[in-house]
Amino acid sequence: MKSAQIRQKFLDFFEAKGHTIVPSFSLVPDNDPTTLFTSSGMQPMVPYLLGQEHPLGRRIVDSQRCFRAVDIEEVGDSRHTTFFEMLGNWSFGDYFKKEQLTWLYEFLTKELQIDSDKLYVTCFGGDNQFKLPKDTESYAIWKELGVPEERISFYGGEKNWWNRGKTGPATTPIGDPCGPDSEVFYEFSDIAHNPKFGEECHVNCDCGRYVEIANSVFMEYLKQDETTFVPLAQKNVDFGGGLERIAMAVNNEADIFKAVEVLEAIIKELERLGANASVDYLANNFPLRIIADHIRAAVFMIQDGIVPSNKEAGYVLRRLIRRSALQLHQLQIKDLVVWKNLVGIIAEHYGDLYPELISNRNGNLEILLAEVNKFNETLEKGLKEITKVEQLDGKLAFKLYETYGFPFELTEEIARERGQAVEYGVFRAEFKKHQTLSRQNSKSKFGGHGLILDTGELKAGDEIELKKATRLHTATHLLQASLRKVLGENIQQRGSDINADRLRFDFSFERKLTDEEKERVEMNVNHFIKEGLKVTKQEMSYDEAIKSGALAFFKQKYPERVTVYTIATNSGEIISKELCGGPHIDNSSKLGSFEIKKEESVGAGVRRIKAVLQ
Fold first, then answer.
1. Which pLDDT tens digit goes with each residue over 436-490?
2. Count of beta carbons in the 10 Å neighbourhood of residue 567
3. What is the pLDDT of residues 52-78, one digit of tens each?
4. 419 exposed, middle or buried (CB, 10 Å; 0-12, 13-18, 19+)?
5. What is the distance between the alpha carbons of residues 405 and 504, in angstroms, rounded to a whole number?
6. Cα 427 to Cα 432: distance, rounded to the nearest angstrom
């Protein structure tokens, strides 16, 4: 059964149970500063779990695209991917455990025809420290459904507890909804237990014999303080089932890269393109899995407005692309047509669900190839330097990495071919030393929304640079206000970079600005400057800031207490109100004259403006 069929069966099944189908949210979280990516179906639903009324009712079903950066290093085995689809059904204060577990079991065993003898379930075993009870109710429901006692297990701690971030009662953030969960595992009986994961195998073992395919979370608590959990005003159901892992169970295929047709199609194309170098999945499954996973994830990230960079989400995207490029290089698949073909496979596979992947195929490919070409230049420079050196070691590996971005893995491989060794510990020590020196040397540096300023004294030249950058920081807020005024309030910031000479501002927009639009944007900013607008600063909680109408953007992580800068006219009309790390000038009249130098594309649906103050 193909994954698209499983997805549709799930949506249809729960729609028949009174649920409304809602579309997937972006991989870039909206108004959630706690994370760079949507990594679970729960994230966009938190307001409704806390009691806010969902406009489409109390029963919702969806398939949410997700990305988990923590799994990057795990990719290469038979069951981990960074990008995945999370099938989810939700009850916001409506049905609870009985209905959820009954419907789930029916869906798995009747709709998908999964062999019930291969299913195992786990329940929350309680937590005495936090006075959280054992979930005997779920246990009893599973028994009533016909699951034998020997296939029902209790786990405490973090194993059967769910919240945002790292799970477990102790690590649940204060103010977050949370609760016990009941998980369903599928047994791949042909897989032998690996002793490195423990002497004996068990349902929650990480050896791969048992794979979690479904998780029913009963969101019924709120963490009030470090030690206290209180009942939520409503009891919720938050179900999550990884589509790709369910496909493994449906097809009784322990290798996720064979169970999911798009991943299998990517690997077959890689085998075809690497035929001259004898590339085949049996001998090269580790690098082929990395490429297949990373390119799929990269295409979806680019489609959702992320572009490769040295910061935050852009850095993760760059890492995915470069890891893929490195594996292709090592497999001797050097024809750039591989990227075009794989982007095409992904677009065609998901085109019915996400037609924008087809319409933006060329733009997404352009961003990928730009990063691949940069990386290929890096490889050439590094390889040229290596030919000049007789002995490779950890210090040289870091020098190549720091100077050219040359991957440690490739230096290590070349050293191995020479019969030499590159010590990773030495490489890491040099890396940490470099980080320390960089922090000491960064007296003032702008990045994103805020200014990172060391506590050391500034030299006279530094003060001048700081004042210039401060003016541009305030001008960035006025630029965004002008863009929203000219192009519409759907404009969202996608990144910014400010130094003493210019500002760079990335924003969501589907097309090139006309000359007239650029003139209007520039004219508005200069009008704001001449108005002599007052810039005020307030400190408040993040929730208070959002309720007050302040804009906040997904690429910035905010603390509990935030700073809000408001730019307003003397009559009180608000021109701009944003969460920001500052600093800013106190009046727009001090900015001078604003001029747009360049407006360009940096990816599908993302534009960039470079501007200066005269």
1. 776 565 433 333 333 332 223 433 444 455 667 788 889 999 999 999 999 988 8
2. 22
3. 999 899 999 999 999 998 888 889 899
4. exposed
5. 24
6. 9
What is the Cα–Cα distance from 400 to 402, expressed in whole angstroms? 6
Inter-residue contact 97 to 50 (CB < 8 Å) = no
Which residue in the block uniquely carries the two structure tokens 């919702």?
60
Cα–Cα separations (whole angstroms), residue 401 to 381, 382, 405: 11, 8, 4
Q: How far apart are CA 549 and CA 574, in angstroms?
A: 10
Q: For 404-432, what is each residue's pLDDT tens digit?
A: 888 887 888 788 878 888 888 888 888 88
Taking Cα atoms as reference points, which of 479, 508, 487, 504 lies closest to residue 567?
479
What mean pLDDT comes out for the span 350-367?
94
Residues with Cβ < 8 Å from 545, sequence gap 6 or more?
A: 552, 562, 564, 579
Q: Are 497 and 472 in contact (CB under 8 A)?
A: no
Tokens representing 11 are 């949506």
CA dihedral 347, 349, 355, 359 (to 10 degrees): 20
* CA distance readout (Å), 81 to 185, 255, 345, 599: 18, 11, 18, 36
Two structure tokens written together for 177: 């909804």
Predicted confidence (pLDDT) at residue 318 exceeds the cutoff of 70: yes
Quickly state the pLDDT bin for 563 (edges 50, 70, 90): confident
Q: Which two tokens stand for residue 33?
A: 């500063």
Round to whole Å and give the CA distance between 290 and 324: 7
* Spatial separation of the C-alpha atoms in residues 471 and 360, rounded to whole Å: 37
- The residues, ordered by sequence, that sit 6+ positions from 410 with a Cβ below 8 Å of its Cβ are 326, 329, 330, 379, 382
Kind of pairing between the strands at 503-508 and 606-613: antiparallel
| pLDDT value at 215 more than 90 | yes
Query: CB neighbours (10 Å) of residue 91?
Result: 23
Query: 233: how many CB neighbours lie within 10 A of its CB?
Result: 9
DSSP per residue, 383-403: HHHHTT-S---HHHHHHHHHH
Give residue-wise pLDDT tens across range 247-287: 999 999 999 999 999 999 999 999 999 998 899 999 999 99
Each residue's pLDDT tens digit, 529-562: 998 999 998 888 888 888 888 887 643 445 567 7
Helix (H), strand (E), coil (C) string for 40-93: CCCHHHHHHHCCCCCCCCCEEEEEEEEECHHHHHHECECCCCCEEEEEEEEEEC
Beta bridge partners of 88: 62
Looking at residue 405, what is its pLDDT?
Answer: 80
The CA distances from residue 444 to 249, 438, 439, 451, in Å, are 54, 11, 10, 7
pLDDT beyond 70 at 604: no
CA distance linking residue 491 with residue 508, whole number of Å: 6
388 CB-contact burial (10 Å; exposed 0-12 / middle 13-18 / buried 19+): exposed
% of the chain at pLDDT higher than 90: 56
